[in-house]
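With this grant's support, we have settled on a layout for protein records. An illustrative entry appears below exactly as we store it:
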Amino acid sequence: MAENFDSVPTVTIIGAGPCGCAFAADLASRGKSVMLYAHPDHRGGTDMIEKNDGWLNAAGEISGKFQIKTTSDLYIAIRHSPFIVTTVPSYGQDTILTLLSQFDLRNHTLIINVGNFFYLSARSKINAHAILETDISPYATRIQGNTVFVKGCKKTLSIWAEPPNTTQVERLDPQAELGLRHKVEMIFSQKLVWCQNLLEVGLNNVNPVVHCPAALMNAGWIEATKGDFYFYAQGMSPAVSRVTEKLDKERLAISHAYGLEITPITTYMNQNYNNDREYTDYHDFASGSVVHNKTKSSPTSLNHRYLLEDVLYGLVPWYELGVKCGLASPTIRALIEMAAVVSGFDYFEHGRTLKSAGLGDATKEQVLHALGGPVDKTPSSHAPLPESPIGNKMELHAPLQTARVGA
């Protein structure tokens, strides 16, 4: 057991917000050496850690005081571990991708949490040994004062690794591939569900289903109270929950069109958050979830990731994937258009679109092939990655762009 436990003794986390700090506490609680990277202009929880002489206070589902290394030098962060987990919001991923593209990452495994089709942007820009995406954050968490408060921990996460035809030579050996999976499983305390297809992960992210209808339909309350209400128990009324369930049905229809069986929203919540009983429908969950009603957790403004992340990087690619299959997805489209009016921002123009990934004119079958191929039970075959043109640029440093939205 000791050998397995030590197979991944170090992990670097990029992003020091609530999820990054919760992840750091989780890893440190299991004896791993954690380096938490934050840009000088976006310090997140690093200030509270450094003021506490390098100790991170955690409460809730992960409780204790943990020693965490911190840095604002990406070179130092990358050197700390061959395993890098990014926890930045999706609207910061392109900036992180630009920074990482300056380094030789052929010996590094990059895990994007949450992925939101990150690979669409990364597929030709970085030379990491492996790129993996998870469907959702492992934690329901907030930073309160000098403590990261972990309200709840997911039981399972879906995860995907880049398609075989872009995989490094070193991963040709099936045993080496199994070894990589085993090491990744050492990083997460949740059970990992391995997916063959990126669409499984991207469509299994329930955040857009949960956040977008409630944020948009509570716009007046958000602006009037600055978020001073319980987002789930109060904001997800029966009417809002009906829109949520309709949105979810459209997500499931898109999934089915690509041959995928995605878990419905209420079933997902029962699997991950049931409180000694099963929720009968989505409103029953929203009003009855102990985890989600421990704090109010409402957006304080509409300039918030519940729209600017979950619409741009969730609903927009979902809608486009549906169009490839002849699906109108009227609820998804209506929410995107409503968010555009509310935010004064063209989500179709700036979202993570298939066009931006060079797949705008691709057929449904070509999209499916580019993102991992049809899901089946056959073993993957692996081909080598072409020689990287990037070269060794570990000495380069670049500034992080200023984030455009609130946390």
